[in-house]
# Entry
Amino acid sequence: MTTLNYKHLHYFWAVAKAGGVARAAERLHLTPQSISGQLKLLEESLGGGLFRRAGRRLELTDAGRVALAYAEEIFTRGDELQDVMKHGRDGMPQLLRVGVADVVPKSIAFELLRPALALPEPMRIVCREWRLKDLLAELAVQRLDVVIADAPMPKELDVRAFSHLLGTCGIAFFAAPALAKRCRAQFPRALDGAPMLMPGEDAAVRPKLMQWFAAQRVRPRIVGEFDDRALMHDFGQAGDGVFAAPAPLSGHLKQRYGVIALGETDQVVEEFYAISVERRLTAPAVLAMREAGKERLFGQRMPVTPRRRRATGKRL
# Structure
């Protein structure tokens, strides 16, 4: 049997993390042709394809997902070995392995996780972003400590895990200044016929948005759908459409993207959960994450403007 080439495995890991050969080649300072050749050799040694082509993107096969899980463990342990040899075990930071569902806004995940780094004990956070079902599979075999998701544990999955509600919030709608000027009607009528950027099909808030549009009798023109909400925000910043986001992020989005809030509603509720194998949360870092949600994010009331435009929504 051929001995596993760990350099080839590292190239595979880099491609999977970067999302493509070209990006991985740039980060590793190698040519794409060189990496593609090494990947082919790895696939031959493992006896199966690790990626499949999906348009311009590469997607992991079932074998690729298995290989990536082992690669993550191997290279994480390798980093720990270096830390032990350099600082000794007593000086090692505690490790918090977090899975972030790809539909969770990155700013929400950041605000939830950042307090863990402020704990008295040294902390090292390892974040993995993936589809929820894949993250839960990693949680089941204890390769993750906790998963941040926009929905509770799916009932159809045979994984013993528990959902801990971090908080709920309403949503607000944002647009670049030029587009906002064209949305002159009162909110939410301003959304009728407006170009709309929507979260992807896996996002729990998507069907809620569609139901709310129907209830308000507004028909936005959907021009884009995004699993990655940060990318959706970039398109919104460019003026390509209106987008919805959790209301507590209003200040951050206005400052970072220069967008204008058209209005908000508390009839569309986003929920965020910590999913763990623990029935009760006990790890200090995870408890800090829950407190961050309670105090910094979801404990805040939605701002009330002097006059409410409609019973179901308000313009900001």
